[in-house]
Write a structure and sequence with these properties.
about 240 residues, alpha/beta, Rossmann fold, 8 helices, about 45% helix
Length: about 240
């Protein structure tokens, strides 16, 4: 489980551990990982990694298999947000967003699929409503999350004749550190931003974790290639 140090990732780890799963909790934030592991109990093992590096993705999967002897579910949750005028985005910032939000999902899936084929497992990717609709000042982020949606669909079709299932969840605003720290340009057009707030406010990470637990379970054995929105109706409105 990536992005496990806080937010949706932590909520998923706690939910799955509470249901009896053993989880390799992966994140770049060592202190946050410790907090997650302490809250979840002995069934969770922390693994610090910067998933912007493809080698770290392969090592995380190998570490999970070495620790538990198998891999049943890959949870791609880790992500970063960048809000800026498109003309102000630096090459470094762009590359970092794509590396964490999209490239890591691909390389983790690439490393995990052989193990998941053995266990008849599942991949659950965290996309975003930003992968389904335009969000102002977020071109790189929207690109990365749109890529996650298409990665999900492509893998689901590629492995349609196997037991492997690949699905995604597309949250909108969720009560996480990312939402709390979000900063727009000083000259932001308020009309463009407020239209993305929605009428029902933020979701809670635990609500996303509940959908994740379903998609990761045998109860969703007939679900693959799906993108579940958890967005209080924002995308459809």
């Amino acid at each position: 489980m990536t992005g496990a140090a806080s937010g949706i990732g932590r909520a998923v780890v706690l939910r799955l551990a509470g249901e009896g799963a053993s989880v390799l909790a992966v994140d770049v934030d060592r202190d946050g990982l410790t907090e997650t592991a302490t809250a979840a109990g002995s069934s969770v093992s922390p693994h610090r990694a910067d998933l912007a590096e493809p080698a770290a993705c392969a090592a995380a999967v190998a570490g999970c298999v070495a620790t538990y002897g198998r891999l049943d579910v890959l949870g791609n949750v880790a992500g970063i947000y960048l809000a800026a005028h498109t003309t102000d985005v630096t090459v470094e910032d762009y590359r970092r967003v794509m590396a964490v939000n999209l490239d890591a999902y691909f390389f983790l899936a690439q490393a995990a699929i052989p193990h998941l084929l053995e266990t008849g497992g599942a991949i659950v990717n965290i996309a975003s409503n930003a992968g389904l609709q335009g969000v102002p000042y977020s071109a790189a982020y929207c690109m990365s999350k749109g890529g996650v949606v298409q990665l999900t669909r492509s893998l689901a079709v590629e492995y349609l004749k196997t037991p492997l299932r690949v699905n995604a969840i597309a949250p909108a605003g969720t009560n996480t550190n990312i939402a709390a720290s979000m900063r727009f340009p000083p000259d932001v057009d308020v009309d463009l931003v407020t239209r993305m707030a929605g009428l029902r406010g933020l979701a809670e990470p635990e609500e996303v974790a509940a959908v994740f637990a379903f998609l990761a379970s045998d109860e969703a054995r007939s679900v693959t290639g799906a993108v579940y929105t958890v967005d209080n109706g924002l995308t459809v409105s």
